[in-house]
Structure formats: structure tokens, C-alpha cells
Amino acid sequence: MGTGNLGKKLSANGSQKNLYLSRDGGLTWKSTRPGSYIYEIGDHGAIIVIAKKNEPITEIEFTWDEGNTWESLTISDTPIIV
Fold it and tell me: What residue ranges in 1-82 does DSSP mark as E strands?
């Protein structure tokens, strides 16, 4: 997983960044979500959890199948910054 953009250089503008996921060690990359995200990979890749970076949220998203499908989970009744 990584945050980046498709331009010639990494932009400081968060709206021009996307979250990308590679399933082959970085040979190819797929855009997963638009914007900047914080992520964590658990159990040797069995679960991936993402949340918007530097934005108040009430939900996180997670995947059990390497990003093919995503589910949401409410983690707070009031918005928090993860």
C-alpha cells in the first residue's frame, strides 16, 4: 500500500493523491481510494484497515481479500481523527 499520484512528482496537495495497492510486490499498482489515507496491514496481509488521513471520521474501512472488497465499521459516534 502507498499514497501517491500519477504525476511526475508527489504533490503537496492532498486532493491530488490516491491510495494505491499492489498485490505483486510493487510491480503493478491499483488505485484503491481517492485522497490521503492512513493504513495498517495486519496478520501478514490477511486484513487491511484504512481511514481518511487528518480528517474527522466515524467509520473505518477494512478488507479481508487484498482489497477486492471493502467493508465499513463504525468506530465512534462522534467524529475523531485517527
Answer: 2-4, 18-21, 30-34, 37-42, 47-52, 59-63, 71-74
Buried b (16+ CB within 10 A) or exposed e, 22-41: eeeeeeebeebbeebbebee
Give the SS3 label for residue 18: strand
Of the candidates 51, 5, 46, the residue with the CA atom closest to the CA atom of residue 29: 5
Residue 57, C-alpha cell as written in the block = 471520521
Domain parsing of the chain, residue ranges: 2-74
The low-confidence residues of the chain, meaning pLDDT below 50, are: none
pTM score above 0.85 = no
Q: Let me know: does 67 contact 49? Beta carbons within 8 Å.
A: no
* CA distances (Å), origin 58, targets 11, 40, 61: 27, 17, 10
